[in-house]
Amino acid sequence: MRIATYNVNGINGRLAVLLRWLAEAEPDIACLQELKAPEERFPEAAIAAAGYGAIAAEGVPIFLDLKLHDIPATVEGAARNAAALRVSMLTVHALGGPAMVSAAVEGAAEGAPGSPPMVVAVTVLSSVGGESLASPSSLAYEAREAGAGGVVVSGDHVEDVRNVLGESACLVVPGVRPAGSGSNDHVRVLSPRAAMEAGADYLVVGRPVTEAADPASAARGILKEIGRA
Q: Residue 5: which of 168, 219, 224 has the closest Cα?
């Protein structure tokens, strides 16, 4: 089985590029990242015509990293359509404000065939640093009050946000880099163990696995580090 990942960086604007890649690479499973789709309708028909009729298999949780950020009505429609794809979790930008986050939660609940996906709000991107950062803790608190099931938070802010939100909130932590891995374009990073100790529920690990000579071995190493092997 061939599993491939593709950083789309805007699925509506680069649909032709994506379809050409699918035709050339012919992966059995395609993992699409950075969809960034503010449109209310995803190109499901075009992707199905390319031979990929579903993005979720029964029992397999799908994390749909949309990072939705638009007016509440548009985000509500996008979340509704995303939820219809039976995903388990989808992201919005906390900077969109409480009304937008709330709209995403409502749209996801309306569009889901069964249990709605958890909406998690991205506080501050792990590639952004400096003293001018918005407060991740404040953004996290507002998003949670607006109905988000959890937040995306990175670096030294993970522990602070966990203390603010308590144990009931879900924390997704990107910018996770095992020992010996480069930081790539992440400014704020944590090792897998440090992220878990700070309060992470889920770790987002990309290139240290996808670009490794032996991705399966790299993934097993991370699981071993956090005691999940």
A: 219
Q: Measured between alpha carbons, how far is residue 191 from residues 3, 160, 170, 178, 219 in Å?
A: 26, 17, 19, 5, 13
Residue type, 13: G
pTM above 0.85, yes or no: no
Classified by CATH at the fold level, domain 54-225 comes out as TIM Barrel (3.20.20)
3-state SS assignment for residue 153: coil
Cα torsion 100, 102, 106, 112 to 10°: value is: 80
* Active-site entry in 67, 80, 86, 177: 67
Could you read off the pLDDT of 117-167 as tens digits, one per residue? 999 999 987 665 554 567 899 999 999 999 999 999 988 899 999 999 999
224 carries an active-site annotation: no
